[in-house]
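#random but structural
TW: two for the price of one
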Amino acid sequence: MLIGAHVSTGGGLPRAIERAEGMDCESIQIFNQSPRMWRPTRYSDEDFAEFRQAMDASKVEVVAIHAIYLINPATNDKEMRKKSLDSLTHALRVGDGIGAMGVVVHPGALKDDTRANARKRAVKLIKEALAETERCPILYENTAGSPQLLGRDFDETAELIDKTGGPKRLGLCIDSCHLHATGYDVRTPHGMKDLVDEIDAKIGLKQLKLLHVNDSRDARGSNRDRHAPIPNGEIGRNGMRAFLGEPRLQGLPAVLEGPGVDGKAPVRKDIQITRRLHREAIRKRS
């Protein structure tokens, strides 16, 4: 398992690798632009080359991009649709430039429309973004279970993958906090086995590309996406061992999003804690 964290690109793309090295990351996630602004960051081919050179010289093996929070691929508002399409296309182009393993996307919100109509709009927008770019995949992230959001179960995510173009440039990212909030039992080996069995049956394990490793401030089934420092939340130490120790998840990149032990972004100590929990889980299973 390649354990790492979401890191800042402040000061330029290569600074993300510098920060990752300071935290002892093996994988990282970045935003391609400010997550709460529509204005894209203009990167050059030289910026991309410098990032790849820095990454090649580091122990970071995988980089993922998280699309900004503002986009809504399912929107029926024309201005929002254009902004969402432009931002997602930009994220994929940055992914092409830096060799990212994928862009993590929330499929979108229904607002006041039906799920069927929202799915159609999301599929159309995402297909357009993929058509405008070359290689970088889109990774649909499971949600915390709100009925207002697409991707609340693996049946719907499988349909989105199929209708957006199939497995070639589509994949899945799972978030431990979101799964817990939706009602999945990620806190026991048996619960994790059932979860991975479901993903395998409905989507296929080859499409599972990335793990978001987050503890939860709320009880299982709360439908609330509120992270807690690992392992001080409701998932807890034993639960994190179960999640990290599931045999079929080994080898995947596992990214901490935070908050960390100091209540802010993850730091080196958070990586060390997570890595220790992973080692303990593997030893227990062997």
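TW: number two ↓
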Amino acid sequence: MAETAPPSSPSKSLRDVAALITGGASGLGEATARALVDRGAKVAIVDRDADRAKEVAGSLGERARAYAADVTDEGEVRQAVDGARADLGELRVAVLCAGIGWAQRTVGRDGPADLSAFEMVVRVNLIGTYNVLRLVAASMGGNQPDDGGQRGVVVMTASVAAFDGQIGQTAYSASKGGVAAMTLPAARDLAGVGIRVCTIAPGVFRTPMLAGLPEPAQRSLEAAVPFPSRLGEPAEYALLACQIAEHPYLNGEIIRLDGALRMAPK
């Protein structure tokens, strides 16, 4: 069987590419927006916090736009996607970072866990991710394919909790496990239209969610990471998101970004 020679330069430049980032007003999403702009991309910052989204977009200059949307709201996400495409051009990259956390044992001192809290976490983290995935992929499907037939790439965000969730993380683990589980079928669904789908599963990162923990708790988390023994930096998540976007053969993968961390029960 004859072999096809690989492209001489597999990396795809992000210069002038239009990208959409959910949860783009803080944490991993904000870091990704900044990394993309540094690489010459144009970014649509989508966040429920409209004021903060505008502030971040303003700090990034003319290459950034802000759009207010709750990822669980079909109409708001559709409007953000359509608006970003109209303002920035064909969306070629989407990085889905919007999410929430919740900790509660299945049965605690006061009885069974709050079902409404479980539903909310799953709705935001899993259903919200799928809502954006399907709508942004539909937009990408109308793009002109590049030389390799690619029309776009979507990077979703799971968590190491998808694989080794801790005590009290049933809701969070279920939601992030769902994101991980739909990565391969989504990649297969979208292969025919030239859209790649990958997922990053971060470990313990220095985000607003973790910043609320007491200092001793943060130090304990750092000590649990084999190497480097520290919290991950949002810029490191952003670096991987950009590398996935640039790599034309990476598809259907869940990539742990955790310094070899495997979470203990608690």
